[in-house]
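User: Predict the structure for this protein chain, please.
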Amino acid sequence: MTKSDRPFVELNGIAYRRPATPVVVVCIDGGDPLYTEAGVADGVLPTIGRYMTDGFSTLANGVVPSFTNPNNLSIVTGAPPAVHGISGNFFLDPETGDAVMMNDPRWLTAETLFAAFSRAGARVAVVTAKDKLRRLLGHGMTGGICFSSEQADRCTRDEHGIEDALGLVGWDLPDVYSAELSLFAMEAGIRLLERERFDLMYLSLTDYIQHKHAPGSPEANDFYRRLDDAIGRLEACGAVIGLIADHGMSDKADADGQPNVIYLQDRLDARFGAGAAKVILPITDPYVVHHGALGGFARIYATDAVTVEALITFTHGLPGVAAVFDKATACKTFELPPEREGDVVVVSEGGTALGGAAADHDLTGLEGHRLRSHGGMVEAWVPFILSRPLNETYRARAAAGGIRSYEIFDYAVNGTV
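Assistant: Here is the predicted structure, written as structure tokens:
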């Protein structure tokens, strides 16, 4: 093997070559395939439509629970949660018994591509819309740039690798509940690529629009039109573009527009007694206004007052529940870390959401909008799009099927011509 044939980086069982041209992967948060289909049909996605025709396009299966943190970390490690350790936005810490967010790098059990590439001497940049992901995505990076749209006014060279991110983009700081939070991240990526060459870049957006507006709606189409324009400008900087989503999105309201919710904690308390089991909703994070912490995946932790078998039998019989698993089966089925999993996992059908106790959910942010959310198996299917065609080796892999969303960097770096 000659020096030029050797992999530049090996990570989690994948050998990555050093890119000959910048590779930019955009994670369209909540980017359900129906948004892309509607945008192409309505003529608002000329760039993405061209990629789907002239590059490569398929549907890929993501990580369940189909939430932001586990899928983003799978994308940037090229591995499932059983490898990297982040299996939701929230879980019950077995050491303390407290419900905690998994946004601290101490929960990571694998290195990211950005850490590995930067340590090998590559130039890397990460821009995420929400700051909750920044420390996870940037953990272990040696040099490079990593900041969020949400806190672009607080960047320092020591912590983020850049000063004056607002000046870089030339925009005011966007509101966290706005389409501009995502578009700011895109604009930042463009300005960085215009300024200097990066080997790897990752732009992770937010699903504010997708939670509020259905595919093909004027609001969704306007956002996707602006996103498509930004993607074309990234390509014009000479980059290979990979488009992926962390999860899809489903309408979870009834015919009258009311949220269609199973409040699991209330149902379990009524059946087995208060405190017999504890429900944890791993969709929970600091940004619940647009979904009320209602999603498609729930963890149940049993006490001595109830058996796992009884919990499974009861929850499996609830209308709107798609599947129920014990811990071992859930971990095997979805490649999850057992130390972060509940005794029982409940997954809802596409049109149904799972909640805890009704009194704990603030749904005032949903006024005027139908509940749209994610977390289950149906929302794990996402668009997988590359701006360039595949080489012979990766065409054969793709033809065999079974592509996972977290293979996007592998395909973009190693598989394009």
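DSSP finds 16 helices and 19 strands in the chain.
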